[in-house]
Specification:
Layout (H helix, E strand, L loop, with lengths): L20 H4 L3 H28 L13 E3 L4 E3 L5 H17 L1 H5 L3 H22 L5 H26 L3 H22 L1
Antiparallel strand pairs: 1-2
Helix pairs in contact: 3-5, 3-7, 5-6, 6-7
Protein name: Photosynthetic NDH subunit of lumenal location 2, chloroplastic
GO molecular function: calcium ion binding
Keywords: Chloroplast, Membrane, Plastid, Thylakoid, Transit peptide, Transmembrane, Transmembrane helix
């Protein structure tokens, strides 16, 4: 039977210079920055706490973004109810955004176009219903017709971008632009 021999080597100690108390604490400018950051964080926490308690139990509505935030609980976009004027403004912003994706479409960046379309479709569903109430009765029938065309054109645009069919994608992109421009003109 073989046994391993153990050696009793002396422990090696590394000598360090003595640590001074001044080297541990931060310098005065760093301490002021840290204190200021803590103070700002504390003040923000107080504002959130005050808002939450003033609104009652639950998520503070005043702190939610006006045009939607991402909800990690439901894994969907949380869209608070907007006023009809805000919905009309978001429809105008969507029209400008759809005009700006032409470069992505021409470079055939299909994933980015699909993502953009789907996010805008989610917002438009609700905005079209809410913005309807800003119109006088004489223009409501035209608005409904154009809103239905817009919904159909965006759905077909999304379908052809997913395949990807280049000609049909361009065709329904142009139809979507025409519909949304006509809708913006109706909103005034």
């Amino acid at each position: 039977m073989m046994t391993m021999a153990t050696t009793n080597a002396p422990a090696v100690t590394i000598l360090h210079p003595p640590i001074k108390a001044s080297s541990i604490s931060p310098s005065p400018p760093q301490q002021n920055v840290m204190t200021t950051n803590r103070r700002n964080l504390f003040q923000k926490a107080l504002v959130i706490l005050a808002t939450t308690t003033s609104l009652g139990v639950g998520t503070p509505v005043a702190l939610a973004q006006n045009w939607g935030t991402h909800s990690f609980i439901k894994e969907y976009y949380f869209m608070p109810d907007l006023s009809p004027e805000d919905s009309a403004a978001r429809i105008r912003q969507t029209a400008e955004g759809l005009h700006s994706i032409r470069d992505m479409l021409e470079s055939m960046a299909w994933r980015y176009v699909m993502f953009y379309i789907r996010v805008k479709q989610a917002y438009l569903r609700k905005d079209l219903k809410i913005a309807f109430f800003t119109l006088p009765e004489s223009r409501q029938d035209d608005y409904i017709r154009v809103a239905n065309e817009l919904t159909d054109n965006i759905a077909m645009f999304d379908r052809h971008v997913r395949t990807p069919r280049v000609y049909e994608s361009y065709l329904y992109y142009e139809k979507t632009l025409e519909s949304i421009d006509e809708l913006v003109a109706l909103l005034g």
